[in-house]
Fold:
Amino acid sequence: MSLLRIYCSLRDEPQQCQWALVSGDREPIVGSGPLAQLPQRAERVQLVLPSAEVLITRARLPQSAKRHTGSVLAFAVEDETLGDPDANQVSWLGSADGADVLAVVDRSGLRQWNDALNAAGIRGYEVYCETLMLPWMAGEWSLAWDGHEGFVRTGELEGTTTDSADPSSPPLSLRMMLDEAKSRGEAPASIAVYTTALEPPLEIEAWQRALGIALHLAGRWDWRTAPAEAGVSLVQERARWRIVPGALGKLRPAAWIVGAALAIHALALVGDWTRLAFEQRSLRQQMESRFRAVFPEAVAVANPVVQMRRKLAEARHAVSQPDDGDFLPMMVKVAGALRGVPGGKLRILSYEGGRVTLELLAMDEASVRGLLARLLQAGLRADVSRDSARAGSAKVVLTVRSS
Structure:
């Protein structure tokens, strides 16, 4: 399988790039130049981003949010990016130590390169970060170092860049990462150092004394020669579908069958709507006739169900009998339903015109469903306000009426 790797910076204009064509066990073909000169018809294409241009961070997300990409997840890392969430493309990579791992890249830069690659004939590719292409083993960190600066892979899905340093002293950021890992009990047993330049990378013994951890040289590493299966895809840009010449003629009989089935379904649907509309009008006429028979003095009938309920309440009040919508009967039923609500959750309770409004502090979805079920069993109908139904709402507002 042929693999085309394109190394690019999202901060640069999409005009020039470095590339490598990997094919099986053969030596990669490498080059650089305009996008129009990129090799074509590679079976797989990877867009490789520099480590400094990809932020890999942890967050805790609800299960449903993990399926999203882009601006939905961007709000989860808003505090770390300190910018407009819409400016970032955020992808969920997986889970590590009970937390969710997210990758953040520049949205506008990625879009510019996408448009430029499409114009060059590259329409389907995966986005990779060189950090996660480094070889990695459990219990060990991997460091790529060019003699002045580099990047480190700390886990299967995590890594970051380091600041600059000299051959005799390790970067301060690497020391801080090790100290933080030790405080969490996640410090590695050793660090494998991969060189990315020809010059002597570092003084191993001096770095070991400064870091307090074992280091060993693991050889030379280059994104061009990394194995095809190395790394984790951050974003996958799918190739657009193209219709094969002659396919339309073969699909025409199937299209006629689908069209006929849709037409039959539409006719059946219209017939059902017509029947239901007729039944609705007939039922309303019966309710109006029954209401006028009981209350012939009524001038107009707008809603026979509501008007019948009001007349019934007036008749009960005339003989000093309570109605289901009165304060005391409703309070008895609401109080019984609230017995299953944890103490301190009820914030406000108000009654007006046969309606009880309950405002409760934030409850989980299962508790709200249980409360609604108990109210229904008590003969009450409850509606949840639209604002309360939104995820993360700080309160739940219910409007309760007699059924």
